[in-house]
Amino acid sequence: MKRLFLMVSLFLLSACSQKMPSATVSSIEETQTTSSVETKTATPTLFIHGYAGGPSSFGHLIQRMEDNQIAKKEMILTITSEGKVEVEGELSGKETNPMIQVLFEDNESHEWNQAEWIRTALAYLKETYAIEHVNLVGHSMGGVSSLRYLGTYGSDMSVPQVEKFSAIGAPFNDFIDTSSIQTIDDLLENGPTEFSTRYQDYQAMMATMPQFSTQLIGGQLSETDFSDGTVPLTSALAVYSLLKEQQMSVDYTIITTNAQHSQLHENTEVDQLLQQFLWND
């Protein structure tokens, strides 16, 4: 414990000489949870992969959740390029914290198509199982497309309403890095100092978005590299202030161990954060 405290202290002292001294870094000890979940529900959680992703993108994380008896994988929904739903498995209706893996046949399509395909998946759940509420977890572009879905279709009462949304390494401000000109505190309070078209779209959508709780997870490779190697940390956290302005519940965590972009969904600290946010709150 003393060694951990010393390491964290050294990091913070070093960070003070960088452009982003206010970054709040999560550690395994700070987010440690038990392998059990006190209360389980029948609310499904949909896991949505990133650009060029597939079954392995969230497959190992979902398996770990099952192995630890935290949640149960009950279904795979594959959305074809034509917007049809291919189904493997079925929802039990039991309080198992059911997990649904969502796969896009055209896994390199743009976020507008993916937002529509997310709606297709949710419409299937409503029509087939009368599901009223869901959670969404998106990695990378899966997070971007999920927020675009929420801004475009989120208030549509003909599909299940989203209660919780977790975004892991999602480039909400595209790949613009503002870390050289603003601190994390400034970003969280005021938003990025440079806007992408994508971020401006979110700005325009905020007023009509439904209420939901959000978890933002970003990676930081080192004291001098404020990114996960692909997505700038300032982009992964860019929508924090927008959501706060709408009086939504938002939290964020910066991952500094095994923080490379494609490894974030293989990171057991991320497992713990998801467990706490989705099923222990």
Roughly how many Å is the radius of gyration?
18 Å
Largest sheet: 8 strands, mixed
Instruction: Provide the β-strand percentage band.
Output: 15-25%
CATH architecture: 3-Layer(aba) Sandwich
Structural class: alpha/beta
- For the secondary structure, the number of strands is 9
Number of helical stretches of at least 4 residues: 10
Poorly predicted ranges: 1-34
- The CATH class name reads Alpha Beta
Mean pLDDT: 89
Give the number of domains. Answer: 1
User: What order do the strands of the largest sheet run in, or round the barrel if closed?
Assistant: 3-2-4-1-5-6-8-9
The CATH topology, please?
Rossmann fold
Protein name: Alpha/beta hydrolase
InterPro entries: AB_hydrolase_fold (IPR029058), DUF915_hydro-like (IPR010315)
Keywords: Signal
Key features?
281 residues, Rossmann fold, 9 strands, 20% strand, globular
Report a brief summary of the structure.
By secondary structure, this protein is an alpha/beta fold.
